[in-house]
Amino acid sequence: MIDFLLEPLEYEFFRHGLLAALMVGSFCGLIGAYVILRGMSYVGHGLSHAAFGGAVVGFMLNQNFYAGAGAMGLLATLLINRITKNGRIKQDAAIGIVTTAIFALGVAIISHVRTFNQSFEAALFGNILGITSGDLVVIALVSLSTVLAIFFMYRPLLFSTFDPDAAQVFGIRTGLVQLMFSFLLTLAIIASMNVVGVTMIAATLITPAVTARLMTDCFSRMLIYSLIIGAITGVAGMYLSYTFNTASGATIVLFGAALFCLTWLTSHVHGRRVAHRYLHRRHHSGQTTLPRRGMEQNETRI
User: Fold this and answer.
1) Measured at the alpha carbon of residue 106, what is the angle toward residues 194 and 142, in degrees to the nearest 5?
2) Quick one: which H or E segment has residue 233?
3) pTM of structure
4) Predicted confidence pLDDT, tens digits, the chain (302 residues)
5) Taking the CB of residue 279, how many other CB atoms lie within 10 A of it?
6) CATH numbers and ranges of domains, the chain
7) What is the largest CA-CA distance in the chain?
């Protein structure tokens, strides 16, 4: 067991990848808790495609990978918020138009110049074992920014997530909060592109949070669980990919999916047992109402 843990650490590329997976898993899990409760799962998927298009444009302009992806990701965020501002066009429709168009622009540029740079392949499918010291600095800065932003915006984010109408009544600028959170989500996506790739970023954001949601109905605990699950998924996925010689990003996502399935099955079986025991105890008293605790609920406690 010790050899299993220590042997890969002899290689610098693995140490870099492990640290990147740990940080990305943590901040994606943290942000993902808000993403699923705010109904923004499709937003994360769409913004990742927009960031890829921006990376291609940046390459054509001889700019830094992160600069191009960041600029286009932020532009997509602004356009989506602007298009949906008056309420006539729904968010999912705006995302489908804006992000798909930017992604298509990137694909068109690549097909025109007939050049498929290795960094583009890493952006699409991830190349965590090619993480450099510069990439680690970017990921570390995004991790720190995420934690600080969630800490200082905790109450406005919490209020606007669960009851945006009441939040407005109490003076919270829900539109600004939404925009700032979208910017934060964009930064997280850009930092994650080289780790898991555009095609799997959405799973990295959503899976830990959904798994945590099955474990608790308390939001503060859900945040902590989601962060821990994301970190464990990243580290475990790295070791498994090294052991079985599989793609690191895909292995991380598969481990997260397996953990979700195990948690869902455990939660489902436990819920059925609680219901069965309750009904058995109450059978002779004539009470048929099911207990709230242990059963499926539609609300989340703060």
Assistant:
1) 35
2) helix 219-244
3) 0.84
4) 787 788 999 999 999 999 999 999 999 999 999 999 988 888 888 888 898 888 888 878 877 778 888 889 899 988 988 898 877 888 888 988 999 999 999 889 888 876 655 566 777 778 888 898 999 999 999 999 999 999 999 999 998 988 888 888 888 998 889 889 988 998 999 899 888 888 889 899 999 999 999 999 899 999 999 999 999 999 999 999 999 999 899 999 999 999 999 999 998 887 777 666 766 676 656 554 545 544 444 455 55
5) 13
6) 11-282 (1.10.3470.10)
7) 77
